[in-house]
Design brief:
The structure holds 2 protein chains of 2 kinds.
Chain A: H1 2-15, H2 17-41, H3 46-57, H4 60-70, H5 74-92, H6 94-123, E1 134-141, H7 153-159, E2 165-171, E3 178-181, E4 188-195, H8 199-203, E5 209-210, E6 223-226, H9 228-235, E7 245-248, E8 251-258, E9 273-276, E10 290-291, E11 294-299, H10 305-322, E12 329-335, H11 336-376, H12 378-386, H13 391-428, H14 442-469, H15 472-481, H16 487-522, E13 533-537, H17 547-562, E14 567-573, E15 584-589, E16 602-611, H18 613-617, E17 621-624, E18 638-642, H19 643-649, E19 659-662, E20 665-673, E21 687-691, E22 703-708, H20 712-726, E23 733-737, H21 738-781, H22 783-791, H23 796-828, H24 841-868, H25 871-875
Parallel strand pairs in A: 4-9, 6-8, 16-21, 18-20
Antiparallel strand pairs in A: 1-11, 1-12, 2-11, 3-4, 5-8, 6-9, 7-8, 10-15, 13-22, 13-23, 14-16, 14-22, 15-16, 15-19, 17-20, 18-21, 19-20
Chain B: E1 6-7, H1 13-23, E2 26-27, H2 28-38, E3 43-44, H3 47-59, E4 63-69, E5 75-81, H4 83-107
Parallel strand pairs in B: 1-3
Antiparallel strand pairs in B: 2-5, 4-5
Helix pairs in contact in B: 1-2, 1-4
Classes of the chains: A alpha+beta, B alpha+beta.
């Protein structure tokens, strides 16, 4: 009860301060009047009664003050006064306050946003139950244990019965597989994912309505599981949808179930419909070297990765005996999480390092600012202290000032965080796995805020504590007379600036290395001419296009397109160049030096083409011929190979006319073409090109490629019309330029690069600010000394040189230290660099020049100001 | 008022105020005046300590306040004892009595032969 009444009184005081004061005044005046009245009654005359009662009372204001003390809110009153004083002081120096708040905001905001991105992509678990048990299985050649290739259906059937696996699933992900649904205006393409029956046990997500597939369905049965979204879009969320039909590519599929909302495939991401995969090829031994399946598995609880791997190794050996065609095939499993983020990990770790450096830089900068401010005010503190101000009050006020700055910085930092986060999501959208799940983590914000506040408080307090310790008289004498100012303060600050220069230098070097990597990548010869090339997919519904019609279409369509004015060449291919590896088959030479030599059996990228593909993407013919009308469906199987392939299998010999076996086919080389990069980093892969029309059974989805003179948009419309004329139900899917298609793969590097260069620019700005701050402060401290020198006849130029020398000295020491740091750190970066040495001299020199220019500018401006001032005015 | 009038013994102000309020609710001047009267003008209450003491007692929940009109038609803040205040008065009273008896005993002590 007493605690309650205490609280009530205190709160009343705080909230109704004015009323409380008025009532106190009224109560005390009533008291005085009662006293005076009492005295009049006792016979005193009016004026005497009044005076005596006042004397007796002992001073109205003093009593009021004692009552105020008793309210128990005195500390708060003082703090409130300090805060309003702080705000006034901060507003009086808007430049200082703005710089400090902006520095904090950028530091807190930038680091939180970037760290959140790292956290979302790297550190947060996969959105599946017990994600640690999820693994992805890759196949590799026995001599290339680090390859990560797709799996053959034959091997998959053996792998999925491993006792280490609780469940294993096959999906067909190596191309974006789509299906056309709807007719007329509502026709559109959806993303489908063929999966095996155990898929749903692997991800541990089952249909919310209906059922999943059974193993009996793994024949490509015409059933389908819908995504929640497709169910809502196409069936308006109809709960009785199971058993109804969804027509895809002109063929009806029975709806078996609907997945819960929010579920997405761990590898492919958002999928509209799941179909049963056809595992029949897995029972045909000729497919033992036909790699096209993605395998995900869930380990049994408690089974470590290593034990599963050991079991897998044993199985691989027995499979190698069973299938002589595939005796070199091995398999490895990788933690799914590591596999998914693996490629981004390095980039994100580097980003994290950059964030840490920037945060450090921010702290150094804030420290610098507050130290300047504190030293500037040592005179003020001494004066207030001499006039009787409580020293604890001075310290408290500096604390409040630092905290106010930190809070304002944090508030602005929150805004920066929001902006930076939406920027990061926009930059990396679609290319960086799981970036879309990015959300603000309060703990992270608290962390950055804590660090920034700590440095603000520590460095804000230091001068106040010093002021509280020293004799005010000494300081006052010093302030009024001294010409040079405290040398020790200057030395501390110069070290801070040196560290600032060093940190900024490291960041600039890092960004410079990445920028030059990127520049080299852009100018890389990928082996294709990707400018002005339009690509799109055209899915031919199997219901209306059997393999003969399909073959005819892929042959005829490019010729029709080439008739459009402005089209240079048109063709099609099973996988666009320089967009990563795709279909690989084992290769066994039948002729030449390595004929039937088992040691040379390797694998090669396989591409199926139609039309004038080579000319459309600018791949030169080096020897022999390209495909022509003589390569008939029934004629001998001919292939065109890349130069690398020819050189590897037939070193020193003419490749034309050589024969080899691949994918269960015996083929003869008729031409050799230039190498094409497998990825956007320019790594070439040995490649075999097949003519589409020489396949009778396999259904290939070819991407159309059209090379254009002039702008693409004009031609694109004509191409669309040509498609509609040929078949009104076909959809031009994913039209984009080849540049874009190749660029998507480079997106991650661009993403990292942009963030790093923004950070480097930030670091540069912060360092410039800090450098400028310390130098101009030094000049201000010495303004009396400089004025005396000038008054005594020193030349402005000499003084400017003096100041410049000091500034460049500080910068130089910082650069030397930064150089050591940069060479250490950039060695860690070598894995993300491309054709650039971590010690690239031009980058290091460039960074030095940039930093020196900034240092000189930061030194020159205050020097000019110092010498421009009238010495007499300063001295007075 | 008289020359002999002096400030209260330290620590007794609150007890005396509580006692005064136990008789009837009262305003500040009334409390001071009543204490002086009842002590036959031996004690006088310094206003500088009365009002802070009243506020402290209010914070502890011993008294509550309300604005009322005096017999002379003046608005004044009246202080009234709460049950908690009554309990506090009883406690202080008991401890005062104990102290007073002890002091009395000391002051009346005579040298006994055994202690020499």
């Amino acid at each position: 009860m007493s605690i309650l009444s205490d609280l009530v009184v205190r709160l009343q005081t705080l909230i109704f301060r004015r009323r409380e004061e008025r009532e106190l005044d009224e109560e005390l005046r009533t008291h005085l009047e009662m006293e005076a009245e009492h005295r009049r009654k006792l016979g005193q005359i009016e004026s005497e009664a009044r005076r005596d009662s006042l004397v007796r009372f002992g001073g109205l204001e003093r009593v009021k003050d004692e009552v105020r003390d008793a309210r128990g809110t005195r500390l708060l009153d003082n703090v409130a006064a300090d805060i309003s004083f702080t705000i006034r002081t901060l507003l009086a120096r808007p430049g200082f306050s703005l710089v400090a708040i902006l520095t904090l905001a950028i530091g807190i905001g930038g680091t939180t946003a970037v760290y959140s991105a790292v956290d979302a992509v790297l550190l947060q678990p996969l959105p599946y139950q017990q994600p640690g048990q999820l693994v992805r299985l890759f196949q590799n050649g026995v001599r290339f244990p680090n390859d990560r290739g797709f799996v053959t259906p034959v091997h998959f059937l053996a792998y999925r019965d491993l006792s280490s696996f609780q469940a294993a699933a096959a999906t067909y992900t190596y191309a974006d597989i789509g299906a056309d649904i709807g007719i007329g205006d509502r026709a559109r393409k959806i993303r489908t994912l063929p999966t095996s029956a155990d898929y749903f046990d692997v991800v541990r997500v089952h249909p919310e309505i209906g059922t999943a597939f059974q193993r009996e369905d793994e024949t490509g049965a015409a059933i389908v599981v819908l995504s929640h979204k497709l169910w809502e879009d196409e069936f308006k969320g109809d709960a009785s949808v199971v058993g109804k039909a969804l027509t895809m590519n002109g063929k009806p599929y029975t709806i078996a179930g609907v997945m819960p909302s929010g579920f997405s495939d761990p590898v492919s991401g958002s999928v509209d419909a799941w179909l049963p995969v056809d595992l029949a090829p897995g029972r045909d031994a000729s497919n033992a070297d036909n790699h096209y399946i993605t395998v995900l598995a869930r380990l049994r609880p408690g089974v470590p990765l290593a034990r599963a791997q050991a079991e897998l190794d044993a199985l691989s050996l027995s499979l190698a005996k069973q299938y002589p065609d595939a005796k070199d095939i091995r398999a490895r499993i990788y933690s799914l999480k590591e596999e998914m983020v693996g490629s981004s990990r390095r980039a994100l770790e580097i980003m994290l390092g950059a964030v840490g450096l920037v945060l450090l830089l921010v702290c150094v900068n804030v420290a610098n600012l507050l130290l300047v401010r504190g030293s500037e005010r040592s005179g003020e503190f001494a004066l207030r202290s001499a006039l009787g101000a409580d020293r604890s009050r001075l310290v408290r006020q500096m604390l409040i000032e630092s905290l106010t700055l930190a809070l304002a910085g944090a508030a602005a930092g929150l805004v920066v965080t929001r902006l930076a986060m939406s920027g990061i999501v926009a930059l990396g959208a679609g290319n960086i796995p799981r970036l879309a799940t990015l959300s603000l983590d309060v703990r992270l914000l608290a962390f950055s805020f804590g660090i920034a506040t700590l440095s603000a408080v520590a460095f804000g307090l230091a001068p106040a504590l010093r002021a509280a310790r020293t004799q005010p008289g000494d300081v006052l004498r010093d302030v009024s007379r001294s010409a040079t100012g405290g040398a020790s303060v200057l030395r501390t600050r110069e070290w801070l600036v040196i560290s600032q220069v060093a940190l900024a230098f490291v960041l600039v070097v890092g960004a410079g290395l990445l920028i030059s990597s990127f520049a080299r990548m852009r100018h890389l010869d990928l082996g294709v001419k990707s400018e002005n090339v339009l690509t799109f997919e055209l899915a031919l519904p199997p219901a209306r296009y059997d393999s003969i019609a399909r073959g005819r279409f892929y042959d005829d369509f490019p010729r029709e397109i080439e008739a459009i004015p402005g089209v240079r060449a048109a063709g099609a291919i099973s996988h666009l160049p320089a967009t990563g590896g795709f279909h690989t088959w084992g290769v066994r030479p039948l002729t030449g030096k390595f004929a039937n030599n088992p040691q040379v059996a390797g694998s090669a990228q396989q591409r199926v083409i139609a039309g004038d593909y080579f000319r459309a993407v600018g791949i030169p013919l080096l020897r022999g011929r390209l495909f022509d009308q003589t390569d008939t469906p029934d004629g001998p199987r001919h292939v065109v190979v890349s130069k690398l392939f020819a050189d590897r299998l037939y070193p020193g010999a003419d490749a034309i006319g050589q024969r080899f076996e691949t994918g269960g086919r015996e083929v003869e080389i008729v031409g050799v073409v230039g190498d094409v990069a497998l990825d956007n980093e320019g790594h070439p892969g040995p490649t075999v090109y097949h003519a589409h029309r020489q396949f009778s059974r396999r259904e290939w989805l070819l991407e159309q490629i059209i090379a254009v003179d002039g702008p693409i948009t004009a031609v694109q419309q004509r191409v669309r019309q040509a498609i509609v004329q040929r078949d009104g139900q076909l959809v031009m899917y994913k039209p984009r330029t080849l540049d874009e298609a190749i660029g998507v793969a480079a997106a991650q590097r661009v993403f990292t690069l942009r963030i790093l260069s923004t950070f480097a620019a930030l670091a540069l700005g912060l360092a410039a600010l800090g450098l400028f701050g310390v130098l101009s402060y030094g000049v201000r401290l010495r303004s009396r000394e400089l004025s005396i020198r000038m008054a005594l006849g020193a030349e402005g130029g000499a003084i400017r040189r003096l100041i410049m020398r000091r500034g460049l000295l500080v910068t130089g020491v910082g650069l030397v230290i930064g150089l050591v740091g940069a060479t250490t750190l950039s060695r860690l970066m070598s894995s993300v660099l491309f054709q650039v040495s971590p010690f690239d001299p031009s980058v290091l020199a460039g960074a030095m020049v940039v930093m020196t220019i900034i240092g000189s500018a930061a030194a020159y401006l205050p020097a000019r100001r110092a010498t421009a001032a009238d010495p007499v005015a300063t001295l007075r | 008022m008289t020359d002999e009038s002096r400030e209260l013994l330290s620590g007794t102000l609150e007890m005396l105020v509580l006692k005064t309020l136990a008789l009837e609710p009262m305003h500040g001047w009334g409390i001071a005046h009543r204490i002086e009267q009842m002590s036959s003008s031996v004690f006088f209450v310094a206003q500088g300590s009365l009002y802070p003491a009243l506020l402290r007692m209010k914070r502890r929940g011993w008294v509550k306040t309300s604005w009322q009109t005096t017999e002379n038609n003046r608005r004044a803040r009246y202080y009234e004892l709460t049950p908690a205040g009554q309990k506090q008065l009883d406690a202080e009273r008991a401890s005062w009595d104990r102290a007073a008896r002890a002091i009395d005993a000391i002051m009346n002590a005579k040298l006994s032969l055994g202690d020499a």
